[in-house]
Amino acid sequence: MELMISKLLGFTLILTRVSAFFLVLPVFSWKSIPVRVKVSMAVLLSVFFSTVTQVGVEAEQVGVVEAVLLILNESLYGLALGLIASFLFSAVKLGGRIAERQMGLAMAQVLDPLTGERSQPLGSLLEMIFMILFLSANGHHLLLMTISRSYAAFPVGGPLRISALAGGIVEAGSVMLVAGLRLSAPMVAAFLLLLVVLAVLARIVPEMNILFVSLPMRVGLGLLMAVIFLPLLSRFVSEFSDLLGKVLPL
Q1: pLDDT digits (tens, 9 = 90+) for 132-142
Q2: Cα(first)–Cα(last) distance of the chain, in Å?
Q3: Cα-flanking dihedrals φ and ψ of residue 111, to 5°?
Q4: What CA–CA distance (Å, rounded) separates 178 from 40?
Q5: Against a cut of 0.85, is the pTM above it?
Q6: Residue 119 — φ and ψ, nearest 5°?
């Protein structure tokens, strides 16, 4: 009986970390995926991890308060690791939003069918393309490897390492900003050149309505640069694993 209770407690702790990790992780957290599928995936992965993971918790030595604290620790581990991966994924959407503001589409919004939230069209399109490239390169194996490695770095039932998790989240946020700016740098440079050309035209042809002329030019240049921008996404897919390995506190 005590062995069964110990196994059940260990499985509950592993299920808590896996569920919290999937709760905020892109692809797995999309509303377009049915809840039953998400629950089934979390349970199956937890069953697998429970067979290969050593749980350093003795059920007979754990009271109700200690069990609640252990579950809270595991949920914090899963949420922190999921947030770190989610921040790196958001670099592509951030680059698209920077380009959209340069195109004059800051107020344009569409319903994202994946998340069920309002988002901007170019950022959502680039994110979908990046997800397709990421999954085609077996990127989901990298995410599963991340949660697997977390049990070696943060053993189940061990002390909570808040400093390591907070440092990883902060570093992931800074990497997201830098990567987003780096991905959108060619677009920003092209729009800067367009502004110079429009300024010269305004001086040469003062009677020209620069605002009226610039709007279609900005949108057209943005779409052209988005097509040129696509090869950078495939390169970022290969860089994603390196960034994830550097940012994760594992």
Answers
A1: 888 888 878 88
A2: 35
A3: -85, 120
A4: 36
A5: no
A6: -145, 175
